[in-house]
Amino acid sequence: MNKRLNIKFIQSFLKTIKNKPLWLIDNLLLELEISEKELFYILTIVSDIYTTSGETFIDYEINEDKKEINFNLSENVSEFLSINDGELFNIFFLLSTDANLLSLQEENKSIKDFSNILANYFTLESTDYDEPLRLPFNDQLNVIEYIKLGSSNSIFYKIKPITLKSNSDGIILEAFDVDENLIKSFLVERIVNITDDSEYLESSKIKTNTIKVEFDLLDENFLNKLGSRIYKCVEGKLYMEFYSYENALDYAIKNLLFLEVAAPSDLLNDINKRKNNLMEML
Amino acid sequence: MKNVIKRSIQLLNLVSNNKTISTNEIKDSITDYRDLSDQAFRRSFERDKSLLRSFGYLLEYENDKWGFDQGYSLGGSYVFNKIKKEAKIDIDEFIANYLIVKKSLNLEIEELVNPEILSKILLATNDKKRLGFTYLSKYRKVKPQGIRFHDGSWYLAAFEGQVFKTFKIEYITDLKVGNKENLFNTTDEPFNFSWEDSKSFLNICISLPKSLYIANKSVFSHKLIKHVQNDEIHIRTSDTYGLVKFLLICDGSFELLSIDKPDLIKEILDE
What is the pTM of this model? Predict the structure, then answer.
């Protein structure tokens, strides 16, 4: 099964069939983007649930000749349907920042109204995106120009977007790297361009090696900020591993008030060289 | 997997529509739980609760000693429930529009902010209740005003006493919402960080490839005064430490054209 069949998907399924109980099976599969096998898997789950008053949560009838399915929903389904705050927040954030969704609001008044209703409940400011976030990703392939952390050179990736999420580094696009056959994470703010195939250069990719770094800890309070990051701290020394040299360099520069690189010496020399260069320019 | 999804639906169904339900009622109402020993039930229930939590459905135990209805209720859908109850709209149409927006995204969105913390902040901001939490080892009590997105991170804007502050949501733990409503007013003023009120600005002009500026601009707080076509950028900032980080990261790719207070940067480099 391809689709992630979880409680969130079941909620979406119920929201879809609630207002329109009669469906051509093919249309329903298209709407839900699932296979027939997946649809029947869901139906076996939901039709086996009973409400506290003993009635079936969802009943259905299939007309084999017309290839139709007719749902009969218990009144409890309306009460059960909900959209949680996290989901609404994600949608509201993207409605206010994503270029595609901003134009959708201009074309469709009811979507604009939907956005206005949400605006009454979310007090949200964003100064990072003076221009709307540009994520014109479709479900086909995209070529992105990306600058990795700690690097000043662009790399082109041919990707298929999967998920937008966030972690301590910012908003992350998880996407399938077509050439390397791997799922990778890209920081949205470091995607500097979305291009066509002509600019795509596979040769620009460089294989990276992990690197272990020893830091002198300059401020013990910094440990509170490490969250879920894996590290070892012994007698004022902090030991961390990074997936690339560039990543370690970026981390060391961004935290230079709290940490000082002790080893490897290449990294320490690189930072000192950068400091000297800047000092000379001033 | 099938049984887990089934139990999750049954659990949500039991607590939907603001119902509060006791642990015993939960055990009796769900077939999979009914025949389990108390210990096995506890384990299974905790697992299911934590699975639901990961999807943003918060099964919370109401433990108010003066309350009448003690037991589990469903949290995490504060905004939807409020819209359903208060807004004069067709909730089916609201859901239909939600589905249109979601479908037009073409990609899945996972949580952008911790849903449990977000939900409590929303509840406290809208109902004007106090929030208590631990922030980098120190306990704080604040009057929340809203959320701000900046530098790739989420911040809670709130008054601590009479002082307006911003707290990085990532560092907030043990968040609790007070009981009393309408304790304060919310402000319409922008949620400024302390450095934004600073009077000591530094002006710098550099020549740097646009792509490199875009990729690294969130490293420091600044105002872009002018971006000339030949990659010349004029910046005004009071975040000198952030500017140093930005310049060190872009080493070798920029040319310094002018700066009005170089000593501020030299001081940091000399430390």
Answer: 0.70
